[in-house]
Amino acid sequence: MAVAALALAIAGCGPTYPPVSGRVTIAGRPAAGVHVLFTPLATSSTIAPGPYAQATTDAHGKYTLVTRRGAPGATPGSNRVELKAAGWNELEYWRSEAARLQAEADGALRHPVARDRIAIEERIGQLEAGAGKDGPEPTATTEFLVPAGGTDSADFDLAELSAASTGGAKP
Fold it and tell me: What pLDDT, on the 0 to 100 scale, is given for residue 137?
């Protein structure tokens, strides 16, 4: 019976990942509501290196990663890091929803789905009008090496990343 209890306890324990946290800023100011996604990069020896990890920054721009499996931390090694401002995530969602509704509506303006699509397109217009007004592009991509022991300083500045991707021209 003790062996069965031990086997159940061991089976319930999943893999552990090094803890990763940091801060996202825009030109040194905290960036709240930024979605942070770490995706491990495959190598010739690790075709499936591990799960992605994600978080959203708080009011101070701070975040702590959790894997897609719900475990705290991130896969060690090289990771592609994507940063997306919250409004941009909403914009992408509504664009895809509008396309889906367009396919359902068959162009009939009296169809309830078509009315929903029109409301969604209005929201898309509002979001597009505000995107990028007060700073850099709302998305950025870079790479980060997650150390085996974890880190609490996985910090990113969207203005710097944006400038690097545009050849040094700051927004």
Answer: 46
